[in-house]
Amino acid sequence: MMEYRIREIRITDYLDIYLLNREFNPNLAHFPEEKVKEKIQTITQETTDKIFVFELNNEVVGYIHGSRYELLFADSMINVLGFVVKEHYRNQGIGSKLMDCLEHWAWEEGYSGIKLLSHPSREQAHRLYHKRGYQYTKDQKNYMKSF
What we know:
single chain, GNAT family N-acetyltransferase, GNAT_dom
């Protein structure tokens, strides 16, 4: 049995988050540690977003980031903007525990549900979502314009 705790993110977690992001997608290495630190500060102080981290032996090995999602045609939901578990610790229930935590918080806060996007190649993650009752709704292409 592993000793762990799930808690809200702290600014001091920035290096662990930077390393998790970089492991998850090496292209994110261009977004430096200091910017991750600034983003944690902005998100925790200026938004209603919730970020939970999974801490194992004082090391952050995963996180989930939920943000309020408002539409003109649906009740308020939470949109998962980030969800990463360190590769070495996958398939040990950490992702499920993080999702439990976010789902419980969202339900307590009165949100109508949770939505998330997942890359087509992430089949293992898709199995987790289906198992947890998430329904596959549609294929989409994501577009972005940088300034």
